[in-house]
Specification:
753 residues, alpha/beta, 8-stranded parallel beta barrel, 6-stranded antiparallel sheet, 18% strand, elongated
């Protein structure tokens, strides 16, 4: 039924009941907080900064300034709550450029608060104001309480008999008893004792982890700290990161988030956190010290502890949509503040434009939305100490009116911002809308998750690539995608696994997803896994299959850490973590989603962790493995030695025909003699040279080692056919000799002498 027809039908139903439009549900008893006790003094205050800011005025009076952008609203009430839930209301009567503001003397840090915003209820035009709903301040820096989703938190009558038009019927029940409150926070930290690592992009090794899942089962972390910011800051947790050698943790979302209704109905929760509702507040569920503002200090102490260990903190941020979903979703914050001002709406303004697959999309072209996002980003850098961001579905943020636009307001503002242009910026370069796939298209300031790297490496090791052209590009920095506009090899964030999809162990153990635990009939999650189970689906007692799986895991990790670009590991992959074949564990806040540290009691996982640490250390020692400029492929000296060369198993350089021929073997020579740039003293950068042999075939191959000018002899550094690597280094091979490379093996050789 068209929206016009729906509107006419509902109007007829309401006319029969004595109403000409669907304005409100039948009256229901109001909560005790519905009456407004008098006596909340409000001074004019200031329109900036937005949110709640405690301060002492020039007259020596301490209090809090409240400011809320609600451009189309008719009135705004500030609501203050005591420990028992009692509510006091005060109107904010000052209005400056769409911002309602006021200063309330005596309101101190720890005070819980929210807003009620008055205006028209006319969903047909996108107006969804409903003062019965207590709204979370979009700028709240701490949130107390959890989001459940009873009917009272919906702006419309969720259980209206005609469900297709339920979102047009206003619900007048008070939501205050059922929603979290913002908390006034005191600014008392200047970060004078903090030392940011400031690791250059080319030297970075990223480690994606979940704050809760990383320490929830960690035996070295005190039980009361497990699953929290304090737990991640604990020496036992940080020791693992330091021993691995990673330079940055990329934290799954830590902005305050809510759980979806369909999960709560199934007894599950949103575990990953890609359902943000508070862009300034650290998620309260990860705090060990309390949720009345203590979570802010706990998060800062975590950042300091990681910085002290030389580890940067990058946040995975979700500015493309919020937890309020579409027209049938709850009214928690922005929807009730100014629905039309914050969200992209369709031509039928009752409906939301959805480029995210989550029901709504923030309207980043709007100045107030752009300000919300950039204010949030600057806050996390300047006041919370973080070092960068990974933007979920970044293409949605780069859309202008409809299409993805690399000259969009969002990208332009980031490029000129003196704070944000200096931190690490990572794009997930796609969304679910038309034209949303933008890998390689983001401007030079940005790095990108390179899913073409992921797909090529997975396909190579499962024998699904028709030739080796794609692997050549991915191993050498993806110049076909990023060698434009001054971009460098570090524009490519290389990964084989991520939180979304199989773990490394599952990638070599399953070919099909097994998401039954999610309660969606195994319909969720991708079917395009590019995985090979090595001969048996799932766990098996077959010793040969298990050994092959461990070798394939070593091959994938070694390929990742030898490739030019920025490698990203996923927490637990270095110790063989499994999700039991679940490739969409977003709702598994349990042993499926948590790291199992007991794996390190087994020899196989221990050996994998040791190999991972060894490869990262090798990468840190050798600048030829972390180049700051793309390879030229040209000879820079009379002997014909080039910075990059490719070889067949015959020991000859690859020809054009070789690139197009079916092959399972590829040799990559990296010259340490021709590295662009100079060291800090101005001297040329000189390093060892290496030959990496990647052989994905099942049978052994005799690989002829290239002779002069490439090398006189070679020394084996890594051999992934070995479970333990201790015996590999020191084995020398003469140039021109044929080296037997076992099936499915990476052999890394250093040019000796």
């Amino acid at each position: 039924m068209s929206s016009a027809a729906e509107q006419e039908a509902v109007a007829e139903q309401h006319a029969a009941a004595g109403r000409d439009r669907p304005v409100a549900a039948p009256a229901r008893p109001r909560s005790p907080g519905g009456r407004v006790p008098p006596g909340v003094p409000v001074r004019p205050g200031a329109s900036t900064p937005l949110g709640a800011r405690f301060r002492v005025g020039a007259d020596g009076v301490a209090g809090t300034n409240f400011a809320l952008w609600a451009g189309g609203a008719e009135a705004v009430e500030l609501c203050l709550f005591d420990a028992a839930g009692g509510e006091r209301r005060a109107p904010l009567t000052e209005l400056t450029h769409g911002i309602w503001h006021g200063f309330v003397p005596g309101v101190r840090p720890g005070q819980r608060y929210g807003f009620r915003v008055h205006g028209r209820w006319d969903p047909w035009t996108g107006a969804r104001w409903n003062p019965a709903k207590l709204l979370l301040d979009p700028y709240a820096r701490a949130v107390d309480g959890d989001f459940g989703l009873p009917p009272e938190v919906y702006g419309h009558v969720r259980d209206w008999p005609q469900q297709q038009v339920a979102d047009t019927v206003r619900d007048d029940r008070d939501s205050a008893p059922y929603v979290p409150k913002g908390v006034v926070v005191h600014d008392d930290d200047d970060w004078a004792d903090d030392h940011r690592p400031k690791t250059p992009w080319a030297d970075s090794v990223l480690y994606e982890l979940h704050v809760r899942g990383f320490t929830r089962l960690h035996p070295g972390v005190p039980e009361e700290l497990r699953g929290t910011y304090a737990g991640l800051a604990h020496p036992a947790a940080i020791a693992h990161l330091v021993e691995l050698g990673v330079t940055a943790v990329e934290l799954l979302p830590v902005h305050q988030f809510a759980h979806e209704d369909h999960l709560l109905r199934r007894g599950l929760r949103n575990y990953w956190g890609y359902n943000s509702i508070g862009y300034f507040a650290p998620h309260a569920g990860y705090a060990a010290t309390g949720t009345a503002g203590q979570q802010v200090g706990e998060f800062k102490r975590m950042v300091r502890a990681l910085h002290a260990a030389g580890i940067e903190v990058i946040l995975d941020v979700v500015y493309n949509h919020t937890a309020e979903a579409g027209e049938f979703g709850p009214t928690l914050s922005l929807k009730g503040v100014d629905n039309r001002g914050y969200y992209r709406l369709q031509a039928d303004a009752r409906r939301y434009a959805d480029y995210t697959g989550c029901g709504n999309t923030l309207h980043v072209v709007q100045p107030q939305v752009l300000r919300l996002i950039t204010d949030s980003l600057r806050y996390w850098v300047t006041e919370m100490g973080v070092d960068g961001f990974r933007f979920d579905l970044a293409a949605a943020l780069a859309r202008s009116m409809h299409d993805v636009d690399m000259l969009s307001p969002f990208l332009a503002v980031i490029a000129q911002d003196p704070v944000l242009r200096r931190v690490k910026l990572i794009a997930e370069p796609w969304d679910v809308g038309s034209g949303g796939y933008q890998v390689g298209a983001f401007p030079p300031l940005w790095t990108e998750w390179n899913d073409r790297y992921r797909d090529a490496v997975r396909d190579f090791w499962r024998g699904a690539l028709p030739d080796v052209r794609e692997m050549g590009y991915r191993l050498s920095g993806s110049s076909d995608l990023y060698a434009w506009g001054g971009r460098r090899p570090w524009a490519s964030v290389n990964f084989v696994t991520a939180h979304d999809g199989f773990t490394l162990r599952d990638l070599v153990s399953y070919e099909r997803k097994h998401n039954e635990a999610n309660g969606e009939g195994n319909r969720d999650g991708t079917d395009a896994n590019r995985a090979w189970n090595c001969g048996a689906e799932g766990e098996t007692d077959d010793a040969a299959v298990r050994a092959l799986r461990r070798r394939q895991a070593r091959n994938l990790l070694t390929t990742l850490l030898l490739s030019t670009g920025v490698p990203m590991l996923v927490a637990g992959d270095e110790m063989g973590r499994t999700q039991r074949g679940n490739n969409n564990a977003y709702c598994q806040d349990n042993e499926i989603g948590w790291l199992d540290w007991s794996l390190l009691e087994e020899p196989g996982p221990r050996a994998l962790r040791e190999l991972t640490a060894r490869l990262i250390a090798l990468r840190h020692r050798h600048p030829v493995l972390r180049r700051r400029a793309f390879f030229s492929g040209r000879a820079h000296s009379a002997d014909g030695l080039r910075d990059l060369a490719w070889f067949t198993a015959r020991g000859s350089e690859m020809t054009e025909e070789d690139w197009y021929a079916p092959a399972a073997t590829l040799g990559m020579y990296l010259s340490g003699r021709d590295i662009p740039g100079r060291d800090e003293g101005g001297a040329p950068v000189v390093d060892d040279s290496f030959l990496a042999v990647l052989h994905a075939g099942a049978d052994p191959v005799d690989f002829v080692l290239p002779g002069p000018p490439w090398a006189e002899r070679y020394e084996v550094v890594v051999d992934t056919s070995r479970e333990e690597q201790g015996g590999a280094p020191g084995v020398e091979c003469a140039a021109g000799a044929a080296v037997r490379v076992p099936g499915r093996t990476v052999l890394l050789l250093r040019v000796a002498g």
